Protein: lipid-A-disaccharide synthase
Organism: Gossypium harknessii
Amino acid sequence: ALQFQPHVVVTVDSKGFSFRLLKQLRARYNQQRSDRPVHFHYVAPSFWAWKGGEARLQGLSKFVDHVFCILPNEEAGCKLNGLNATFVGHPILEDVLELNMGKETALHEWKITGNGEDFRKKYAIASGATVITLLPGSRLQEVTRMLPIFSNTMKLLKDSFPELVTVIHVAPNQLVDNYIAKAVHKWPVPAILIPGGTPQLKYDAFNASLVALCTSGTVAMELQLARLPCLVTYRAHFLTEWFVRHKAKIPYISLPNILLDSPVIPEALFQACTPAKVALLLKELMNNTVLQQQQIAAAEKVMELLCPPNRTLNNTEQQGMKPSPPSYSPSMIAASTILGYKQR
């Protein structure tokens, strides 16, 4: 980077590596007393989730010039701690623009409706079958913890739902793929494996499902886009669980609940994440249309919160971009901010 002498340096997430890089670059340029590049970082640290998190923001302004925020509360928090920031919207919105391109829904709502009927036909699922989507995680460590819990949960549910079919979404990770492929040989109910990297098939499966059971993560936001009611679960190493219980300052783990500050999505976490508890919560959700509709209505609010505000769109328009799909995708707003930025 020093030899290339860039005008702008953009780092994305991975805050440990990114902040070390930006800090060292700024120090080198300060030593050389040469024109230094503007430093942008995409995805603000989750300062709002941890005790003392905002205090850690104060030192970032020494080597980060501007932060792109993906959640609505982050921009104000960054600015209060001396860090320039812009809320660009959540990256999950990019899925809407990609999969709904050319469809009327892209023009008026942030939603993805897959083709559940085609999915059922493709996999010969009986018309009376109850389909549950399972998303056990993307990393091998979490999948090995969560998949046995999911399996035992299905074993407890199969008597209540005789024609139960599970659709297991497999992350694009060879180790995860191998583990799940072996595990389904002893699966208690019929299982369909959906490979990672097939977004249209994924949303078709969502549309064919009654509910979803997922490990906490970005998938919870995908389920919001699909308007699929879900139950969020999570288990970790006991030291990680202890740390979260004592250091977190928010009562929820799933982003929709955090944004709404309400437990609209049931969560089974840590020691409470047992097959018996998960089966009880999932059965209640599957049998209660009121709970399902509450989640669907809440998803509308969540997606509204994740969209960039009008003032951001106005700034984008002033920089020569018309604020209409897909111009106001998070990536496009971030790009226009970089191109129009003048270091103060």
The first helix runs from residue 15 to 32.
